[in-house]
Amino acid sequence: MSGGNEAPIGVFDSGIGGLTVVRALRRLLPSESVVYLGDTARVPYGTKSPETVIRYSLNNARFLLGRGVKMLVVACNTASSTALGAMREHFTGIPVIGMVEPGAQAAVLASKSGSIGVIGTRATIESRSYERALRQFGGPSVIMDGEPCPLFVSLAEEGIVDGPIVDLVARRYLERLVSRLPDMDTLILGCTHYPLLSSAIHATVEDLAGHEVTLIDSGESAARVVSDVLDSRGIRSTRNDRGELTVYVTDTSHIREVGSRFLGEELGDIRKVDI
Amino acid sequence: MSGGNEAPIGVFDSGIGGLTVVRALRRLLPSESVVYLGDTARVPYGTKSPETVIRYSLNNARFLLGRGVKMLVVACNTASSTALGAMREHFTGIPVIGMVEPGAQAAVLASKSGSIGVIGTRATIESRSYERALRQFGGPSVIMDGEPCPLFVSLAEEGIVDGPIVDLVARRYLERLVSRLPDMDTLILGCTHYPLLSSAIHATVEDLAGHEVTLIDSGESAARVVSDVLDSRGIRSTRNDRGELTVYVTDTSHIREVGSRFLGEELGDIRKVDI
Questions:
Q1: Is the pTM of the predicted complex or chain greater than 0.90?
Q2: Which of A73, B57, B108, B123 is 20 to 30 A from B74 via CA?
Q3: Domain A9-98+220-272 has CATH 3.30.920.30
Q4: Nearest CA to CA, how far is A231 from chain B (Å)?
Q5: Chain A interface, best mutation among B40, B48, B160, by max A CB count within 10 A
Q6: Where are the domains of chain A?
Q7: Between chains, do B165 and A157 touch, taking CB under 8 Å as contact?
Q8: Choosing from A11, A71, A76, A155, which is the catalytic residue?
Q9: pLDDT, tens digit, 9 for 90 and up, residues B76-133
């Protein structure tokens, strides 16, 4: 369907949050080229129904396959939670990596108490996808619970990533979770926007729990899985310089400013597509 | 194109925020029937480009015209700011009422100092549509400035409408505006979500300004303009009982809970359409 070691990795998200996953990929796998699609005309997916998220995800994947990608990364927890099965059914010739399984696997490895929390959009938490993945990797002894934290997305997009507003919002969400999971020692950031707030989330959750809590960034975990899959399939890039990054969006408003914040570097050429 | 005094009024918004306008319409004009379309699959419009907002708005209007409405109300400040001209060009047979002109007109009437502030989404503020409308109604002596307050939308949708988080966020946005407009005595709520936070906004802005500030709810102002247009065209409903309310959405997730909060009454039958 697509091919060659030098073909790019295709990554999509509902918006620009998935650029934190691109950042993790480019840090771990600098020679790989990446084609990113942000479906910014339809963002956010987290408040939409599963049928709609599946329809949009299949559209996005078709667009990336048309750009000759060798692998698909669903850099959106909502789409990973609701559309990964449908995508793997539709696109059998290519590996499809989501956010949920890598994050859950890393959390099971990190946790000593076996008590694991997950925060994400309402759609991600209600899909119970992390619960299923944690059971799959950790067995029946894992104790888990989740809490939707929708305001974190708006705060990250506004660039409000620390200070009293973030602390109050973090406390409001996390005290519910800690009261239900007092032994929680591992917390999965189940939304690509949340790594921007990780300092405030980390400080607040440890303060509430009264002990150390390891944060799991699903995007970083997914980058490690991507690396493994490239090796196992023998499709790792062999170039010696830095791979290219091409960014497509379905709507261009405010992408550059917010996107650069998420990517951690200046966004280059951005192309608008109608899909 | 459509007709009769008993035909419904068509109202659309990017999501469920426009239900605060429906609430104002049903309070002022209880015998009128209303058909509402919330484009919840594409919400929010406030972060999208003008071309996209115009395309979606024309789609929404066509759908409502297909339901035989006698008037169109654009219950979305972003769409009113960017798409009203295009809508009036396309749909010449029917009155099209937006949010911006009624809100600006009410503000000019309310202000004694002539210093008027506007808060809304980034798209609404950057469109400068309120500035143009305030100049049109108030002349060159009006002093105005605007401040985008995007977090207010997420807070309203989360049901966080008072308390320390809202106060801190309101202070963060409004102190910029008050420092630029120290004599401001009138503040336009230029987003249909904001009436839910009006108590906190009112208290904060008066505290910062050190004097009374009148809040203008664009939805309430628009309802009064709708009433005037119904009379001037002789198309007011003559029924003696309460008009019907029909709500369409393009995606159904979480509509009932949040929508009822915005409408101020329980949402009845909700129909999903693909447009």
A1: no
A2: B108
A3: no
A4: 39
A5: B48
A6: 9-98+220-272, 100-219
A7: no
A8: A76
A9: 998 998 899 999 999 999 999 999 999 999 999 999 999 999 999 888 898 899 999 9
